[in-house]
Protein backbone atom coordinates (compact mmCIF):
# COMPACT_ATOMS: atom_id res chain seq x y z
CA UNK A 1 0.00 0.00 0.00
CA UNK A 2 1.27 3.48 -0.88
CA UNK A 3 2.12 5.94 1.88
CA UNK A 4 -0.32 8.39 0.31
CA UNK A 5 -3.14 5.89 0.67
CA UNK A 6 -2.34 5.36 4.32
CA UNK A 7 -2.22 9.09 4.92
CA UNK A 8 -5.62 9.57 3.36
CA UNK A 9 -7.01 7.36 6.10
CA UNK A 10 -5.33 9.35 8.79
CA UNK A 11 -7.53 12.37 9.03
CA UNK A 12 -5.60 14.13 11.77
CA UNK A 13 -2.09 13.27 10.75
CA UNK A 14 0.14 15.98 12.25
CA UNK A 15 2.78 17.57 10.06
CA UNK A 16 6.29 16.26 10.60
CA UNK A 17 8.31 18.10 13.20
CA UNK A 18 11.60 19.56 12.11
CA UNK A 19 14.37 20.54 14.49
CA UNK A 20 13.92 24.24 13.76
CA UNK A 21 10.18 24.22 14.12
CA UNK A 22 10.02 23.35 17.80
CA UNK A 23 7.49 25.45 19.65
CA UNK A 24 7.18 24.77 23.37
CA UNK A 25 10.60 25.24 24.83
CA UNK A 26 10.74 25.02 28.53
CA UNK A 27 12.12 22.70 31.10
CA UNK A 28 13.06 19.79 28.93
CA UNK A 29 15.29 18.01 31.37
CA UNK A 30 16.88 14.83 30.28
CA UNK A 31 20.14 13.08 30.74
CA UNK A 32 21.76 12.92 27.35
CA UNK A 33 24.88 11.07 26.42
CA UNK A 34 26.16 13.42 23.80
CA UNK A 35 27.55 12.03 20.56
CA UNK A 36 31.35 11.78 20.43
CA UNK A 37 32.18 15.23 19.00
CA UNK A 38 30.41 16.92 21.89
CA UNK A 39 31.75 14.68 24.60
CA UNK A 40 35.29 15.32 23.37
CA UNK A 41 34.91 19.02 22.88
CA UNK A 42 32.61 20.12 25.61
CA UNK A 43 32.10 17.83 28.53
CA UNK A 44 32.12 14.33 29.88
CA UNK A 45 29.11 12.23 29.01
CA UNK A 46 26.58 11.58 30.41
CA UNK A 47 25.41 15.07 31.17
CA UNK A 48 22.25 16.64 32.39
CA UNK A 49 20.84 19.10 29.98
CA UNK A 50 18.43 21.93 30.49
CA UNK A 51 16.84 23.62 27.52
CA UNK A 52 15.87 26.48 29.72
CA UNK A 53 19.03 28.49 30.24
CA UNK A 54 18.39 30.37 33.44
CA UNK A 55 21.70 32.17 33.08
CA UNK A 56 23.25 30.65 36.18
CA UNK A 57 26.66 29.68 34.81
CA UNK A 58 27.80 28.40 38.18
CA UNK A 59 25.55 25.34 37.95
CA UNK A 60 28.22 23.31 36.23
CA UNK A 61 31.63 23.95 34.75
CA UNK A 62 30.19 24.41 31.32
CA UNK A 63 27.10 26.34 32.36
CA UNK A 64 23.69 25.05 31.35
CA UNK A 65 24.10 23.66 27.88
CA UNK A 66 21.64 25.15 25.44
CA UNK A 67 20.64 22.12 23.52
CA UNK A 68 18.77 24.10 20.91
CA UNK A 69 22.02 25.89 20.08
CA UNK A 70 23.76 22.56 19.62
CA UNK A 71 20.90 21.43 17.41
CA UNK A 72 21.31 24.55 15.31
CA UNK A 73 25.10 24.31 15.16
CA UNK A 74 25.30 20.61 14.40
CA UNK A 75 22.02 19.69 12.72
CA UNK A 76 23.44 16.57 11.07
CA UNK A 77 24.37 14.82 14.30
CA UNK A 78 21.08 15.60 15.95
CA UNK A 79 19.00 14.66 12.96
CA UNK A 80 20.32 11.15 12.66
CA UNK A 81 19.92 9.59 9.23
CA UNK A 82 16.70 11.33 8.30
CA UNK A 83 16.82 14.51 6.30
CA UNK A 84 15.07 17.27 8.26
CA UNK A 85 13.63 18.89 5.16
CA UNK A 86 12.43 15.69 3.57
CA UNK A 87 11.35 13.31 6.31
CA UNK A 88 10.66 9.90 4.82
CA UNK A 89 8.62 7.20 6.56
CA UNK A 90 10.70 4.31 7.78
CA UNK A 91 9.78 0.94 6.40
CA UNK A 92 9.58 -2.08 8.66
CA UNK A 93 12.59 -3.52 6.78
CA UNK A 94 14.61 -0.38 7.42
CA UNK A 95 13.73 -0.59 11.08
CA UNK A 96 14.92 -4.16 11.49
CA UNK A 97 18.06 -3.42 9.44
CA UNK A 98 18.93 -0.51 11.68
CA UNK A 99 18.76 -2.81 14.65
CA UNK A 100 20.69 -5.66 13.11
CA UNK A 101 23.40 -3.43 11.62
CA UNK A 102 23.95 -2.11 15.10
CA UNK A 103 23.51 1.59 14.24
CA UNK A 104 23.79 3.67 17.35
CA UNK A 105 20.24 4.91 17.46
CA UNK A 106 19.55 7.13 20.44
CA UNK A 107 16.55 5.77 22.26
CA UNK A 108 14.83 7.63 25.11
CA UNK A 109 13.35 5.75 28.07
CA UNK A 110 11.88 6.88 31.37
CA UNK A 111 13.91 6.22 34.47
CA UNK A 112 17.56 5.89 35.41
CA UNK A 113 20.12 3.21 34.52
CA UNK A 114 18.89 -0.24 35.49
CA UNK A 115 15.18 0.53 34.90
CA UNK A 116 13.14 -2.13 33.11
CA UNK A 117 12.47 0.46 30.43
CA UNK A 118 16.20 0.59 29.66
CA UNK A 119 16.17 -3.20 29.09
CA UNK A 120 13.10 -2.79 26.88
CA UNK A 121 14.87 -0.08 24.83
CA UNK A 122 17.88 -2.38 24.40
CA UNK A 123 15.66 -5.29 23.44
CA UNK A 124 13.80 -3.17 20.89
CA UNK A 125 16.95 -1.63 19.42
CA UNK A 126 20.01 -3.81 20.10
CA UNK A 127 23.22 -1.73 20.32
CA UNK A 128 21.26 1.48 20.76
CA UNK A 129 22.39 4.31 22.99
CA UNK A 130 19.70 4.27 25.68
CA UNK A 131 19.01 7.82 26.90
CA UNK A 132 17.47 8.15 30.39
CA UNK A 133 14.67 10.71 30.79
CA UNK A 134 13.09 11.89 34.01
CA UNK A 135 9.46 11.62 32.93
CA UNK A 136 7.39 10.06 30.16
CA UNK A 137 6.64 13.55 28.76
CA UNK A 138 10.38 14.23 28.51
CA UNK A 139 10.89 11.12 26.39
CA UNK A 140 8.07 12.18 24.03
CA UNK A 141 9.53 15.69 23.74
CA UNK A 142 13.06 14.39 23.21
CA UNK A 143 11.90 12.55 20.07
CA UNK A 144 9.80 15.46 18.84
CA UNK A 145 12.75 17.84 19.19
CA UNK A 146 15.12 15.50 17.36
CA UNK A 147 17.30 15.08 20.46
CA UNK A 148 16.89 11.31 20.17
CA UNK A 149 15.69 9.03 17.38
CA UNK A 150 13.14 6.89 19.20
CA UNK A 151 11.40 6.42 22.55
CA UNK A 152 10.45 3.13 24.17
CA UNK A 153 7.72 3.53 26.79
CA UNK A 154 5.55 1.09 28.80
CA UNK A 155 1.87 0.96 27.85
CA UNK A 156 0.43 -2.02 29.74
CA UNK A 157 1.35 -4.75 32.17
CA UNK A 158 -0.25 -8.17 32.49
CA UNK A 159 -0.83 -7.71 36.26
CA UNK A 160 -1.11 -3.95 36.79
CA UNK A 161 -3.05 -3.07 33.62
CA UNK A 162 -2.70 0.03 31.47
CA UNK A 163 -0.24 2.87 31.98
CA UNK A 164 -2.80 5.62 31.51
CA UNK A 165 -0.34 8.46 31.41
CA UNK A 166 1.19 7.13 28.21
CA UNK A 167 -2.23 6.69 26.59
CA UNK A 168 -2.92 10.37 27.28
CA UNK A 169 0.50 11.42 26.00
CA UNK A 170 0.05 9.47 22.76
CA UNK A 171 -2.83 11.79 21.95
CA UNK A 172 -1.15 15.00 23.11
CA UNK A 173 1.99 14.37 21.08
CA UNK A 174 2.26 13.60 17.41
CA UNK A 175 4.59 10.59 17.48
CA UNK A 176 3.88 7.34 15.66
CA UNK A 177 3.94 3.82 17.07
CA UNK A 178 6.51 1.91 14.98
CA UNK A 179 6.78 -1.26 17.05
CA UNK A 180 6.08 -3.05 20.29
CA UNK A 181 8.28 -5.05 22.61
CA UNK A 182 7.24 -7.32 25.45
CA UNK A 183 9.48 -7.82 28.46
CA UNK A 184 9.18 -10.36 31.25
CA UNK A 185 9.35 -8.47 34.55
CA UNK A 186 10.96 -10.24 37.50
CA UNK A 187 10.99 -8.09 40.62
CA UNK A 188 13.38 -8.46 43.57
CA UNK A 189 13.39 -6.97 47.03
CA UNK A 190 16.69 -5.10 47.39
CA UNK A 191 18.40 -3.67 50.47
CA UNK A 192 21.79 -2.39 51.57
CA UNK A 193 24.44 -4.90 52.60
CA UNK A 194 23.92 -6.14 56.16
CA UNK A 195 20.20 -5.23 56.18
CA UNK A 196 17.86 -8.16 56.84
CA UNK A 197 14.22 -8.58 55.81
CA UNK A 198 13.07 -8.09 59.44
CA UNK A 199 14.90 -4.69 59.57
CA UNK A 200 12.75 -3.28 56.77
CA UNK A 201 9.75 -1.04 57.48
CA UNK A 202 9.12 0.48 54.06
CA UNK A 203 9.79 -0.22 50.44
CA UNK A 204 10.22 2.18 47.52
CA UNK A 205 9.43 1.58 43.87
CA UNK A 206 7.54 2.63 40.77
CA UNK A 207 3.74 2.49 41.42
CA UNK A 208 3.32 -0.20 38.72
CA UNK A 209 6.01 -2.35 40.33
CA UNK A 210 4.42 -1.92 43.79
CA UNK A 211 1.05 -2.91 42.33
CA UNK A 212 2.58 -5.99 40.69
CA UNK A 213 3.94 -7.14 44.11
CA UNK A 214 0.89 -6.06 46.15
CA UNK A 215 0.19 -9.42 47.87
CA UNK A 216 3.84 -10.21 48.64
CA UNK A 217 4.51 -6.76 50.11
CA UNK A 218 1.34 -6.93 52.24
CA UNK A 219 2.41 -10.33 53.55
CA UNK A 220 5.82 -8.87 54.42
CA UNK A 221 4.08 -5.98 56.25
CA UNK A 222 5.99 -3.30 54.35
CA UNK A 223 4.73 0.26 53.89
CA UNK A 224 4.86 1.22 50.20
CA UNK A 225 6.15 4.51 48.80
CA UNK A 226 6.03 5.46 45.15
CA UNK A 227 8.99 6.95 43.29
CA UNK A 228 9.63 7.63 39.58
CA UNK A 229 11.11 4.27 38.62
CA UNK A 230 12.37 0.99 40.08
CA UNK A 231 16.05 1.68 39.49
CA UNK A 232 15.61 5.18 40.94
CA UNK A 233 14.30 3.51 44.12
CA UNK A 234 17.38 1.26 44.29
CA UNK A 235 19.66 4.26 43.72
CA UNK A 236 17.96 6.21 46.51
CA UNK A 237 18.22 3.34 49.02
CA UNK A 238 21.91 2.87 48.17
CA UNK A 239 22.81 6.57 48.05
CA UNK A 240 21.27 7.37 51.45
CA UNK A 241 22.48 4.03 52.93
CA UNK A 242 18.95 3.43 54.25
CA UNK A 243 18.71 0.64 56.83
CA UNK A 244 14.93 0.41 57.25
CA UNK A 245 13.96 0.86 53.61
CA UNK A 246 14.23 -1.51 50.68
CA UNK A 247 13.51 -1.19 46.95
CA UNK A 248 11.55 -3.27 44.48
CA UNK A 249 13.69 -3.45 41.34
CA UNK A 250 15.61 -5.78 39.03
CA UNK A 251 18.80 -7.78 39.59
CA UNK A 252 20.44 -5.39 37.12
CA UNK A 253 19.60 -2.44 39.40
CA UNK A 254 20.97 -4.43 42.39
CA UNK A 255 24.27 -4.90 40.52
CA UNK A 256 24.53 -1.27 39.37
CA UNK A 257 23.79 0.25 42.80
CA UNK A 258 25.55 -2.41 44.92
CA UNK A 259 22.48 -3.71 46.77
CA UNK A 260 21.75 -7.21 48.12
CA UNK A 261 18.88 -9.28 46.75
CA UNK A 262 16.77 -10.25 49.81
CA UNK A 263 14.00 -11.94 47.81
CA UNK A 264 13.65 -12.85 44.15
CA UNK A 265 10.55 -13.12 41.93
CA UNK A 266 8.30 -11.26 44.36
CA UNK A 267 5.69 -10.34 41.70
CA UNK A 268 2.24 -11.76 42.51
CA UNK A 269 2.21 -13.91 39.38
CA UNK A 270 5.21 -15.44 37.62
CA UNK A 271 3.65 -14.44 34.27
CA UNK A 272 4.43 -10.76 34.66
CA UNK A 273 4.90 -9.09 31.30
CA UNK A 274 5.07 -5.40 30.36
CA UNK A 275 4.34 -4.30 26.81
CA UNK A 276 6.33 -1.29 25.60
CA UNK A 277 5.68 0.88 22.53
CA UNK A 278 8.43 2.01 20.19
CA UNK A 279 7.76 5.61 19.10
CA UNK A 280 9.20 7.63 16.23
CA UNK A 281 8.61 10.91 14.42
CA UNK A 282 7.59 9.12 11.22
CA UNK A 283 5.29 6.13 10.71
CA UNK A 284 6.51 2.93 9.08
CA UNK A 285 4.94 1.72 5.87
CA UNK A 286 3.20 -1.45 6.96
CA UNK A 287 3.30 -4.71 5.03
CA UNK A 288 1.07 -7.76 4.97
CA UNK A 289 3.82 -10.38 4.80
CA UNK A 290 4.18 -10.64 8.59
CA UNK A 291 1.69 -10.30 11.50
CA UNK A 292 0.97 -6.60 11.94
CA UNK A 293 -1.06 -4.79 14.54
CA UNK A 294 -2.67 -1.33 14.28
CA UNK A 295 -3.43 1.08 17.13
CA UNK A 296 -6.10 3.75 16.74
CA UNK A 297 -7.88 6.28 18.95
CA UNK A 298 -11.38 7.56 18.31
CA UNK A 299 -14.34 9.25 19.95
CA UNK A 300 -18.06 8.85 19.43
CA UNK A 301 -21.20 10.84 19.90
CA UNK A 302 -23.34 9.81 22.85
CA UNK A 303 -26.18 7.40 22.21
CA UNK A 304 -27.34 3.83 22.76
CA UNK A 305 -25.25 1.21 21.01
CA UNK A 306 -22.72 3.61 19.46
CA UNK A 307 -19.72 1.78 20.88
CA UNK A 308 -21.30 -1.52 19.83
CA UNK A 309 -21.61 -0.13 16.29
CA UNK A 310 -17.99 1.07 16.37
CA UNK A 311 -16.66 -2.34 17.42
CA UNK A 312 -18.88 -4.06 14.86
CA UNK A 313 -16.88 -2.49 12.00
CA UNK A 314 -14.05 -4.85 13.01
CA UNK A 315 -16.17 -7.89 13.89
CA UNK A 316 -17.99 -7.85 10.53
CA UNK A 317 -14.61 -7.99 8.74
CA UNK A 318 -13.28 -10.74 10.99
CA UNK A 319 -10.63 -8.47 12.51
CA UNK A 320 -9.50 -9.50 15.98
CA UNK A 321 -9.30 -6.76 18.64
CA UNK A 322 -6.39 -7.24 21.05
CA UNK A 323 -6.96 -4.27 23.37
CA UNK A 324 -9.54 -1.63 24.16
CA UNK A 325 -9.01 1.19 26.60
CA UNK A 326 -11.29 4.13 27.33
CA UNK A 327 -9.91 7.37 28.71
CA UNK A 328 -11.76 10.54 29.66
CA UNK A 329 -11.05 13.32 27.21
CA UNK A 330 -9.16 16.06 29.03
CA UNK A 331 -9.71 19.73 28.29
CA UNK A 332 -6.14 20.17 27.09
CA UNK A 333 -6.72 17.51 24.45
CA UNK A 334 -9.67 19.47 23.07
CA UNK A 335 -7.19 21.94 21.62
CA UNK A 336 -5.47 19.11 19.78
CA UNK A 337 -8.72 17.82 18.34
CA UNK A 338 -9.74 21.42 17.45
CA UNK A 339 -12.53 21.56 14.87
CA UNK A 340 -13.62 17.97 15.37
CA UNK A 341 -14.94 18.62 18.87
CA UNK A 342 -18.43 19.82 18.00
CA UNK A 343 -19.99 16.44 18.61
CA UNK A 344 -18.57 16.05 22.12
CA UNK A 345 -20.96 15.95 25.06
CA UNK A 346 -20.25 18.51 27.80
CA UNK A 347 -19.28 16.12 30.58
CA UNK A 348 -17.32 12.88 30.55
CA UNK A 349 -16.61 12.55 26.87
CA UNK A 350 -14.45 9.46 26.29
CA UNK A 351 -11.70 8.48 23.92
CA UNK A 352 -11.39 4.84 22.88
CA UNK A 353 -7.97 3.37 22.19
CA UNK A 354 -8.20 0.15 20.20
CA UNK A 355 -5.50 -2.27 18.99
CA UNK A 356 -6.44 -4.74 16.26
CA UNK A 357 -4.69 -7.60 14.51
CA UNK A 358 -4.32 -6.24 10.98
CA UNK A 359 -1.98 -4.00 9.00
CA UNK A 360 -3.14 -0.72 7.49
CA UNK A 361 -1.99 -2.26 4.21
CA UNK A 362 -4.77 -4.82 4.62
CA UNK A 363 -7.93 -3.92 2.69
CA UNK A 364 -10.10 -5.12 5.59
CA UNK A 365 -8.46 -2.61 7.95
CA UNK A 366 -8.88 0.23 5.43
CA UNK A 367 -12.56 -0.65 4.97
CA UNK A 368 -13.14 -0.95 8.71
CA UNK A 369 -11.61 2.49 9.39
CA UNK A 370 -13.40 4.03 6.41
CA UNK A 371 -16.64 2.72 7.93
CA UNK A 372 -15.76 3.94 11.45
CA UNK A 373 -14.91 7.40 10.09
CA UNK A 374 -18.51 7.75 8.85
CA UNK A 375 -19.79 8.16 12.40
CA UNK A 376 -16.75 8.71 14.69
CA UNK A 377 -16.37 12.32 15.89
CA UNK A 378 -12.58 11.91 15.83
CA UNK A 379 -10.24 9.21 14.52
CA UNK A 380 -6.46 8.96 14.45
CA UNK A 381 -4.25 6.04 13.44
CA UNK A 382 -1.44 5.89 16.01
CA UNK A 383 0.58 3.32 14.08
CA UNK A 384 0.70 0.03 12.24
CA UNK A 385 3.57 -2.19 13.38
CA UNK A 386 4.93 -5.71 13.67
CA UNK A 387 3.50 -7.85 16.46
CA UNK A 388 6.06 -8.91 19.08
CA UNK A 389 5.24 -12.55 19.63
CA UNK A 390 8.48 -13.38 21.46
CA UNK A 391 9.31 -12.88 25.14
CA UNK A 392 12.56 -11.93 26.87
O1 LIG B 1 10.43 1.63 36.84
C1 LIG B 1 10.90 0.99 35.90
O2 LIG B 1 11.92 0.29 35.98
C2 LIG B 1 10.23 1.07 34.60
O3 LIG B 1 10.83 0.79 33.60
C3 LIG B 1 8.78 1.48 34.57
C4 LIG B 1 7.82 0.29 34.62
C5 LIG B 1 6.36 0.77 34.28
O4 LIG B 1 6.11 1.95 34.10
O5 LIG B 1 5.49 -0.10 34.22
C6 LIG B 1 8.20 -0.70 33.59
C7 LIG B 1 8.04 -2.02 33.77
C8 LIG B 1 7.46 -2.58 35.01
O6 LIG B 1 6.11 -2.84 34.72
C9 LIG B 1 7.52 -1.61 36.13
C10 LIG B 1 7.75 -0.30 35.95
Task: Report mean pLDDT, rounded to a whole number.
Answer: 78
CA-atom Rg in angstroms? 22 Å
Low-confidence spans: pLDDT under 50, at least 5 residues? Answer: 1-92, 94-102
Count of beta strands: 19
Shape: elongated
List the helices and strands and how they pair.
Blueprint: H1 3-9, E1 29-32, H2 36-41, E2 47-50, H3 67-73, H4 75-79, E3 90-91, H5 92-100, E4 106-110, H6 116-124, E5 129-133, H7 136-144, E6 150-157, E7 161-162, H8 164-172, E8 176-184, E9 188-191, E10 202-205, H9 207-212, H10 214-220, E11 223-226, H11 230-239, E12 245-249, H12 251-257, E13 260-264, E14 273-280, E15 284-285, E16 292-300, H13 306-315, E17 321-328, H14 331-337, E18 350-356, H15 363-373, E19 376-386
Parallel strand pairs: 3-15, 4-5, 4-6, 10-11, 10-12
Antiparallel strand pairs: 1-2, 6-7, 6-14, 8-14, 9-12, 9-13, 16-18, 16-19, 17-18
Prephenic acid is lined by residues 111, 115-117, 154, 157, 163, 185, 206, 208-209, 229-231, 274.
